[in-house]
Every structure is written in structure tokens, then in C-alpha cells.
Design a protein that fits this description.
Elements (H helix, E strand, L loop, with lengths): L6 H15 L1 H20 L3 H6 L1 H26 L1 H6 L1 H11 L4 H4 L2 H10 L4 H4 L1 H12 L1 H26 L4 H4 L2 H11 L5 H11 L3 H40 L7 H38 L1
Length: 291
């Protein structure tokens, strides 16, 4: 009678790892996610959803079963601890597992939101999209600083613009709020020529006002924001490279044996080098006495 030996779980884990890492598996999961998104779109048509309600419900249950089986394979491939260390795995577990909660099943709105969140799971299957998303998250602190500095700059120039053009151009500078809105659009250089011509009708010195604002807001601050985003992209690429090289899965018995053999050879080589150094040190006084 066959009995499961200690190597059976390891073989099962290796088989699951090969399946999860295969291009066919990831392609199938990607197709399932897209099909699930298409199903959500079909359900928005009342005629279709009313006529094919039973078929759509069965299809949704099949999607749930498929995504659950995918999660089980991923957990078996890396182990529960390694699985929970990955934020993307936690997101998948939340999106797929929350469907089984009674409180979620009774709330149609939350259930639809969770089904819609499955579409975001395509990010984990597309490394380049994942890099962009991670870069966007890492750029948030720098973007917050940019927003604070940019807000202060726009507010100061809005107050100056209100003092300069409140009477001549009340439509754009009649209040601080209107001035802020006008300068916000001016940051994109939209309508800059008209604004400069209207300012020259008030005074030729207003060219300094618009010139300094465009230099600081459109050129300096925007380039700083671009630099923050590029730096975040580089950091996200490094994190993705480190993630792809990280040994999440347990090594096979053959790999562990090879590593142990290599470690023993290194230790033996170090021991021989130490013995050679000891012999060399012992021979040095003898040579000196012979001289």
C-alpha cells in the first residue's frame, strides 16, 4: 500500500510552482479576468440581464470557482507564510475571499465592487503595469510636497494678480478664487498670450509678473514633479527586479544537497588555505636564523 512520504508535499509544491509560473497558466488567468470584466459589462444591459439571469449567475459562480482554485495553487506553490508576505497576494485573497463572507453576499453593491476589483488583478500579471502602479504610489510623498509648494506659489501670485488686475480684468482676477483658477490654467500655458496682452494694457511691468510665474510654475515646478516621477519609476524597477530574484519558494531536496556540497567545498578550501598560512608563518623564523 502506498504511503505519502516526506518528499510528497515537496513534490506537490514543486508541481504547483511549475504550474503557477507557466505562461499558459498566467495567460488563462488573464483571459478569465478579462472575461469576468466583460460579464460585468453585459450585466449592465437590463434586457440581457433579465433574459439570461440564470446563465449569468452560473457563469459568475464558475468564475468564483476558477479564481479560488488559482489562489489555492498559488498558496500551495509558495506556502502560506510566503504567500501572505506578498502584498499582491493579499490583495488577491481579499478580492476573491471576501465573496464568501455572508455580509458581502447580502450587499449587492459591495459584491459588484469586489467583482469589479478583480479587473485590477491584471496588474500582477503585467510587470510593466505593476511597475507604473508602484511608481505612482511611491511618488505620492513627492507629489504632496509639490502640491504644497505649488499651492503656496499660486496663492501668492493670485493675491498679487488681484491687486494688479482686479479692476481691469474682474472676470479673471476679481477675487482670489478667480485669480487662483486663472493661474491654474495659466500653469499649462493655456491662454498665456491673451493674459500677457491684457496685462500690457494695464502696465508694461506686468510682463515681469507673468514671466516670473511661468518660469517658476510651468518650468521649474513641473520639471521637479517629472523628476520625482522618474525617480519613483527607477525605484519601482529596482523593487520589481529584487522581487523577481527573491527566492520565495522552498528549494528542492536536490538543490539543498547541491548547496550543502558547495558549502562543504568552500569550507575545505578555506581550511587548506589556513593550513598553508600556518606553515608559511612557521617557516619564517627558521629562514631568518639561517641567514
Amino acid at each position: 500500500m502506498w504511503r505519502a512520504g516526506p518528499e510528497s508535499p515537496a513534490r506537490g509544491s514543486q508541481w504547483c510552482a511549475r504550474v503557477v509560473d507557466s505562461a499558459a497558466f498566467n495567460g488563462a488567468v488573464f483571459a478569465l479576468i478579462l472575461a469576468n470584466a466583460a460579464l460585468l459589462g453585459v450585466e449592465t444591459y437590463h434586457g440581457v440581464s433579465g433574459r439570461w439571469a440564470q446563465a449569468l449567475s452560473v457563469t459568475e459562480h464558475l468564475f468564483i470557482a476558477a479564481f479560488t482554485a488559482e489562489l489555492v495553487l498559488r498558496i500551495a506553490a509558495v506556502g502560506p507564510r510566503a504567500f501572505l508576505r506578498d502584498p499582491w497576494n493579499l490583495f488577491d485573497l481579499l478580492v476573491v475571499g471576501a465573496v464568501f463572507l455572508p455580509m458581502v453576499q447580502d450587499n449587492a453593491t459591495v459584491l459588484r465592487l469586489l467583482r469589479l476589483a478583480r479587473v485590477l488583478r491584471t496588474v500582477r500579471l503585467l510587470p510593466h503595469v505593476r511597475i507604473i502602479l508602484v511608481a505612482a504610489v511611491r511618488a505620492l510623498p513627492g507629489a504632496f510636497g509639490f502640491t504644497v509648494v505649488g499651492g503656496l506659489l499660486v496663492y501668492v501670485y493670485a493675491m498679487v494678480g488681484w491687486m494688479l488686475f482686479a479692476t481691469a480684468d474682474p472676470e479673471h482676477y476679481g477675487s482670489v478664487g478667480r485669480a487662483v483658477l486663472s493661474l491654474f490654467f495659466l500653469m499649462t500655458l493655456d491662454g498665456l498670450g491673451d493674459a500677457v496682452r491684457a496685462g500690457l494694457e494695464v502696465s508694461r511691468w506686468t510682463i515681469l509678473y507673468f514671466g516670473s510665474y511661468v518660469l517658476l510654475a510651468s518650468f521649474l515646478l513641473v520639471n521637479v514633479l517629472i523628476g520625482v516621477v522618474i525617480t519613483s519609476l527607477d525605484e519601482a524597477r529596482e523593487l520589481e527586479s529584487a522581487r523577481s530574484l527573491r527566492p520565495d519558494r522552498a528549494a528542492s531536496p536536490e538543490d539543498r544537497e547541491a548547496e550543502e556540497q558547495e558549502e562543504r567545498e568552500v569550507r575545505e578550501h578555506i581550511a587548506r588555505l589556513r593550513a598553508s598560512l600556518d606553515q608559511l608563518e612557521a617557516s619564517l623564523p627558521t629562514r631568518r636564523r639561517g641567514r
